[in-house]
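Supplementary Methods, section 5.1.

A reviewer requested that the exact input to the structure prediction be made available. We therefore reproduce it here, unchanged from the version used in the analyses.
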Amino acid sequence: MDEWKFEPARDLGLSPQERLRSLRRENGLLEASASAAWWGLIGAYLALVHRLNVRGREHLPRRAPFILVANHSSHLDVLALAAAVPWRLRERLFPIAAGDTFFEKVPVAMFAAFALNALPLWRKKCSPADMDALRRRLMEEPCAYVLFPEGTRSRTGQMARFRRGIGVLVAGTVVPVVPCRLEGAFEAFPPHRRFPVPGRITLSVGEPLSFHSERNDPEGWARIAARLEETVRGMAAP
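The structure derived from this sequence is encoded token-by-token as follows.
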């Protein structure tokens, strides 16, 4: 048995607004309870309204750390991916969300932080220090991330190129990356709609990939992004 050790929360001493935007944010009892209730409702909603079908669930890791990556065309994407993860890992699962969309206004930031358990990453001013903090937390805590390497939702339903940020997080590490493919989410809730409509969503989960032997440099990051993009594209239903 591991020796118990007291450690203060990583976000100790931050103001409420700083804590919302912090990559070190940790949930307390109130946040964890609210998140559990939220995901219970979301699971029922996805099953009843979108008949969520998860293929390849056996490929989901049983313990952290890991990263789920997928194509991105709808706000339903993150809900479907998180709902597929076992309950015991849900508290350790952090979707990486666009800070300029979800963390600029306090009400939206509170929803993203406490309901979705999201961590912010600013697309226009992302710093190497932010990526390094996410990489270290992934391995030290350990935890899991949901990441959309395209960087934004598709406006047409077609996949865009994967950006190399995913490579920055995992190059040279043993952290498994799980490629996923979402289908039906764009039709159910495309970016131009204010509310979703009923429609079947299928989530295909592929075998985890490891990039422990890949170099942690720009060329290595680009190769990782290209490998994952090719894998996700190849998971499309015939």
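The chain has one domain: 16-233. These observations are discussed further in the main text.
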